[in-house]
Amino acid sequence: MAEELTVDELIEAYEQDAPAADARFLDKRLMVTGVVALIDVKETLDTHYVRLAGAEGDISRSVKCLFDKKHAPDLSQLEKGQTATVQGKFNGSLIAIRMIDCELG
């Protein structure tokens, strides 16, 4: 079962205590909700990711969510500024907060 949290909660956990946040989140399935700040779908480069920002929409406080190319049609339905939930395996840190093997929740 994936742990549910917001982008802000995830980033705040790392800002308060990065080692504890790693112990809690690293290599675990998370369901993260945030504001779509960036959508990058490039078939030629096989790039498929979304950046989910916190409530303020600040891309510098965001989670990079990497998707398999089979999810490209779903990603193209997203709009910048909308709230979205993404489930994926967390493999980041405060420096590169990201999730892999993502799917829209």
Shape: globular
CATH class: Mainly Beta
Q: Which regions have little confidence, pLDDT < 50, spanning 5+ residues?
A: none
The number of helical segments is: 3
Biggest pleated sheet: 5 strands, mixed, barrel
In percent, how much strand structure appears in the residues? 35-45%
Per DSSP E runs of 2 or more residues, the count of β-strands stands at 6
Number of domains: 1
SSE ordering = EHHEEEHEE
Helix fraction? 10-25%
Widest sheet: strand ordering: 2-3-4-6-5
What is the straight-line distance between the termini?
Answer: 13 Å
The CATH topology, please? Answer: OB fold (Dihydrolipoamide Acetyltransferase, E2P)
Provide mean pLDDT, rounded: 92
As a whole number of angstroms, the C-alpha radius of gyration is 13 Å
CATH homolog superfamily: Nucleic acid-binding proteins
CATH architecture: Beta Barrel
The secondary-structure class comes to: alpha/beta
Describe this structure in words.
The protein is an alpha/beta fold. The protein has one domain (3-104): Beta Barrel (OB fold (Dihydrolipoamide Acetyltransferase, E2P)). The chain is 22% helix and 44% strand. It contains three helices and six strands; from the N terminus they run βααβββαββ. It has helices spanning 7-16, 18-25, 72-76; strands spanning 3-6, 29-42, 47-53, 62-67, 83-90, 98-104. It has a five-stranded mixed β-barrel with strand order 2-3-4-6-5. Strand 5 (83-90) and strand 6 form a beta hairpin. Helix 1 crosses helix 2 (18-25). The relative contact order is 0.24.
